[in-house]
Amino acid sequence: MAMELGRYGVWHGPQHFGPELAAGLERAGYGALWLGASPDTALRDAEVLLAATTSVAVGTSIVNMWNSPATEVAESYHRLEDEHPGRFLLGVGIGHRERNDDYRSPYETIVSYLDELDDAKVPVDRRALAALGPKVLQLSGSRTAGALPYLTTPEHTREARRVLGGGVLLAPEQMVVLETDPEIARATARDRLAPYLQLSNYTTNFKRLGFGDDDIADGGSDRLVDAMVLHGSAVEVAEGLKAHIDAGANHVAIQQLGPEGVDLLPGYEALATVLE
């Protein structure tokens, strides 16, 4: 891997990230900050995170190919690279069939987009690809630094590493709730999972992992919720995160869930003290 990400990073959309949280996470020792929720073409939110920190890596997870033309994204990449050399990783992905009216062949679109990034001189080792299924996982290993799977399990990580082979970035995202009461934790988890249970790329992947229609229906079974969202004490959650590393991940992007407006930094600081 060309970029040093450390073992653990933090994933959030721009509505939860900001300069103070970014700086606090860097002080806590996290190696990367991942900007989710389809960052815009100009990548201004990534620029805010880079400016608020000094050495931590910043990545997008992910820029939506349908909404962000490759040539314009490449210009933004080069701007960030000029301003903050060696610290930005461009994560791109195909988005969701249900949310894009002009949805065409996903695989062909990804290949074409990566071709355009090549033409715009975005280095292969400074970009990564959202990938769940084996075909796109293989593409991520051959055309980018590696894969950024979202909403998966250590079992998926193990299979993804088998598909990718060694020497390729594998950085899954993992939702967590720092709450020891399982019913409270599951309620928080279900609120966050609800939109994903309506998206075919995720439900298809759930079924690859052995979950059935009954697990996906009615807000998700306890079995599905517990598999997709780690919960418990910081020590218990840390063990679940380490399972991805043991399964072959180079890096895990942690997404802490909590009530709207809650200060997330103390939870991340608590986790940092028990992560290896």
Automatic annotation (TrEMBL):
**Which terms does the record give in the GO molecular function aspect?**
oxidoreductase activity, acting on paired donors, with incorporation or reduction of molecular oxygen
Q: Which Pfam families match?
A: Bac_luciferase
Report the residue ranges that make up the Luciferase-like domain in this protein: 20-99
Cellular component, GO annotation: cytosol
Q: Which InterPro entries match?
A: Bact_Lucif_Oxidored, Lucif-like_OxRdatse_MSMEG_4141, Luciferase-like_dom, Luciferase-like_sf
Q: Which domain of life is it from?
A: Bacteria
Give the protein name, as stated in the record.
Putative F420-dependent oxidoreductase
Species this protein is from: Kribbella shirazensis
The beginning of the lineage is: Bacteria, Bacillati, Actinomycetota, Actinomycetes, Propionibacteriales
